[in-house]
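Replying to the earlier thread about multi-chain prediction with a worked example.

Input:
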Amino acid sequence: MNPFTMRKIAVEARNIAVSYDGGKTRVLHDINLDIHPGEFFALLGPSGSGKSTLLRLIAGFVPAQGGELLVGGEDVSRVPAHLRYIGMVFQSYALWPHMTVAQNVAFGLVERKVARHIIDKKVEAMLDLVGLSGYGNRRPNQLSGGQQQRVALARTLVIEPRVLLLDEPLSNLDAKLRVQMRQELKRLQNTLGITTIFVTHDQEEALTTCDRIAVMDGGVIQQVGAPEELYSRPVNRFVANFVGSINLLPANVLASDASGSEVECALFGRFRLADQLAVSAGEIAVRPLAMHLAPPGTPARPDDIVISARIESREFMGEFVRYELKAGDRPLTVDQSHRTHTALFESGSEVRVAVSPAEFRFLAD
Amino acid sequence: MTPQPALRAGLAPRVPAKTGATLVALGIAAFLLLFLVLPVGTVIYVAFTDGAGGLTLSHFASFFSLTLMRESFIGSLSVALASVAAASAIALPLAYLTVRFEFRGAVLIQTLGVLPLIMPPFVGAVAMQMIFGKSGAINLLLGDHFDLNIPFMEGLPGVVLVETLHYFPFILLNLVAALANIDGAMEEAAQNLGSTGFRLFRRIVFPLAMPGYIAGASLVFVKVFDDLGTPLVLNVTNMLAPQAYLRITSVGLEDPIGYVISVLMIAFSLFAMWLSALALKGRDYSTLQRGGAALARRRLNWWEAVLAYGWIGLVLLLTLSPHIGLLLLSFAKVWSFSPLPDAYTLEHYATIFSEAPAMMGNTLLYCGLAAAIDVALGVAIAYLMIRVKLRAARALDFAASASLAIPGLVLAIGYLRAFKGVEIGGYAFTGSWLLIMLAYAVRRLPYALRACVAALQQMHASMEEAAANLGATRARTLQRVVIPLMAGGILAGFVTSFITAAVELSATILLTTSQGQAPMSYGIYLYMQSIAGRGPGAALAIIAVLVVAAGTYASNRFIRSRSATREMPR
Amino acid sequence: MKPAAFPHLLCAALLCAATHLAHAQSGTLTVVTSFPKELTETYKKAFEAKNPGLKVEILNKNTTAGIAFVRETAVGSRPDVFWASAPDAFEVLAKDGLLTKYDGANKAVPAKIGAYPINDPNGFYYGQALAGYGLMWNTRYLKAHKLPEPREWADLVKPVYFGHVATSSPSRSGTTHLTVETILQGEGWTRGWSQVLQISGNSAAITERSFGVPEGVSNGQYGIGLVIDFFGLAAKTSGFPVEFIYPSVTAIVPANIGLVNGAKNADAGKKFIAYALGEEGQNLLFDPKVSRLPVLPPAYAKAPKGYPNPFSGSIKAKVNFDSHLSEARYYLVVSLFDQTITFRHKELQAATKAIGEAAAKLAAKPNAQGQKLLADARDAAFSPVVDEARSRDAGFLQVFRSTKKSAENTKQLTALEERWSTEAKSNYARAVDLAQQAGALAK
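Result:
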């Protein structure tokens, strides 16, 4: 049974900006976010995108230079870190080596002057919750990486914070443990229902774990959405590239009205898209897995665009095979799902590429 | 926190490398045996023998029957403990300020923190008498205006004052290094859990810096416990070191009790060092990750700034008071019973530059060579111990560190006794300046060794594995990767050994056999033996301080510029 | 430092080593001395000018380090000449066979000054200059503290000087030993010790080096010090606000020079000794920076005006110093001083202070019983813990004279030290107690 009561709290950012060197280096620019109560929310981006800064800003370690940060509806931007009741798990875990596991976990409660017997009870319950009962008297450096991670989580959660912040929590674990831990994180978040903000540079981690994701680059939020939305409807080249692999092909808009648009691209020729487009040039984005390869001459579905190309190289990825093609002198990446006994295309062989225009997404420049 | 043991296992030493390492270890062992264990052993032997040459513990029994000795023991112990406490009180706030706040004085604090160390202790005490003594500047002014006389320099408290101002940098430097190695996340995690201010410092930051503090504090304890010069200049005799000295050096007395005291002092110092090593065991708290940020710094608000600069100013003034006194003395025509000298002159400097340039050259030569030997041995011992994991290297480390506990006088007497009659190329070894240089090297080895060990510990083994992986032999790896990466630590060790050797007196005075081979510290002592020589002596001391300070500053700059180019982007 | 620099450094070092060793060849003469640089430089320059090709190496070490150095150096590479004040240091050197006996005395030097032989009767060492002991004071200090100028040792026992005097310990300084021994011989054992104890009780410090006293008086740290004459005279000529006088209870004793046994260059050593004892060498002592008294009476013809002359009676040396007595009880006096004064100085000061205060109170309001208690207090504090009869007991003195290496002997000695030390401590505590009672009666 879970003895911990976590309220579901919303986190909202309004026009938040951070810069260093008197405004010369912009780290965060005009951040607006609505994180719903109880949501598992990810900040995804490459290093230097500002995601960690935003997280540290929410925790109170980086002062905002403009805008508001609302937690549960009240502005906390002037509240010092130690009074925010926002729990954070650090990338390095930051477990104090001079304290035992139990002392580490009890720390926040001691600071809040909670009675000794309640502390003991809560620490024990929390260690139980993260699966570390009986480890209380060990020192952090006697634990494995995964166990240290759990201690860090327990230490943060035991104070029943209003929001839980996770800074690249899985980056110090090996691949297998990483998958296991992320499932466990999701389970824990489900059990406790606490609003959780998760920073990662690993799109797979974000896509698999989180309810919604904000993709960041250059201190700016590029797109916010559910995982499948980001994948299938990226709003710009950066998001398209960062979430999954993609082919980007230059394209021109020939005509556009409310009924749709007429677009031309050198590789796939002319086709119609359902959206109305306000620009004249841009790029067509198409996922490698959205195209089908077949030996030349194989008939295609009626609406499909068909081109011919030559296999340049092949990578076997397990679940699928990635082919690098040349159509004329234009490169194209195509993935084909792989089943046992399916024959693979050899390098140098000619193939037919079929794709439905419905898979195309037009990105303005 | 990172699973390093698994990584390190990959660097399993090959068999031939181990043979080479063993040879190097044997070489170092021979050096230590010859120039540390043998000479000290000959001295210790006296403490355990009776007149006929048989072994006896009777001298020890005689020692413990003396009330005076028990008092002296308590005196030494309380002075050492009080000095540690007072030095901590000075160093803690300074260390905290430098790592915690964005603030201009940080470099100043660190540079000035080294200044007391480069002052020959006995000269410092002479100069301090002119400032804080019964008829020093301050008491004369106090007497004129308030009819007050504060006995700063009297008795055991006087010793504590001088020792504290002289040795607090040991705690300061170690503490600053330890604080700088704490990952900022450690502190943020505590803030995140609701801790702040002094409470956070007490529960998280200080415990994490504890190893550095203990290392510094135990060093201060041992140095103060063994220090002879300060109590002697202040005419305090009820302490162990002066008792040993007074007995060993009394005219014509071969007093075994003096040797018993020496043995006890060595034993007690070793015991203190062992205790601190025990306390530090398994507590490598250096938590800064590669790419991690150090503790967050913030700006001081106005009242904090007033407090901080006030405290720094006060400490600086105290720290610099011997230097100020010395400077005045070096320019003074006559300075007697007055807050400031009667008249000023440049004559003393003229005297020095005509009489003492050879001494400056000797100091540079001996101390430079001694420091070079120290870092060479330091790198070798550190490497054998940490990387090759040669078990015997621990013993070498212990033996080399133990020389910290050997009073210079004991070592010097040991040298003269052990090498009596040894000739090199027809000349007596005991008459050669090589012996002075070796005494410096042995006495200052612990400083360089600690610096090298720290530098190597901070370097990840993967750096060497990468070199080995690219086909470098162990020797080439050492030469092309390890030593360049350790350069900062090596330089720090070199500088510490150099500057502390430059002010060594107790062994120097016994081992100097001709004026041509005398170093500056001996020259200062020599001049200070007559009324007319005080001015030139002070001038020579000022030059010594300037030379060493300039060297320290330059090497600091060098270390800083190197570490700046190597910092990883966040 | 770059690793490549090490080989270069090493080469440089070896080169230097070679050249340094080459310097230490014959044609050099090494003198171990405790004398200040001003004196030794004067002699070095003059001697080298007179003997071209012969280089003088001065090794300045305090007397004890000097003895240790000679003893620990191998025969044949030892320094050539030992030159220092303390006669007892030469006694030790001679006894340990570290000096060479040869006939190098200047025949024009008289055999004795007062009753003290100038040259060692056994011929191991020679008096080179004379030294008298006296009082040096800082005129500014005395003025500021409104203290009268002292004339005699006995003046220093007065309470008015409490905390203003400085002296060294006989175990640290041969000159101080001679001063103490002079007082003991001049005043007698019991009275003498009483005076020594009272002066020490009035002292601000028992300095570790004998030079600590003139240094402290020159810079104003102490008001009055017991010093060897040349320190006082040299400080005065250097412009310091100090004065020096010989009290009537003083002794004139020689500072000595001797040829070391096993010297590297004995011939040059003999030459130097002959020069230092000759007329030219003796005249160098008048140099204002040196300010010492020649052993050669005719030399005084060239003395500056007003220069003290021990041979003319201008110094009233009342004490005929008995060097045999001094030597016989050397270790007793030294050890007694250290155990009851040097190491118990804090307690002695407290007793002296309490007695002084009580005396002042009783002077204002006399009280017979108080006077008696005060006399008891003085008695407790200022009597030696070894009485005169014991100090003459040859068997007792023998304890101190043995080689000091046997365990049994060490045990005996430490037992004595322990007794004196604790006895002194309890005496001083009792004196404080008695003096306070006496003071209380004056109310």
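Chain B touches chain C through 85 residues (CB under 8 Å).

Feel free to reuse this layout for your own posts.
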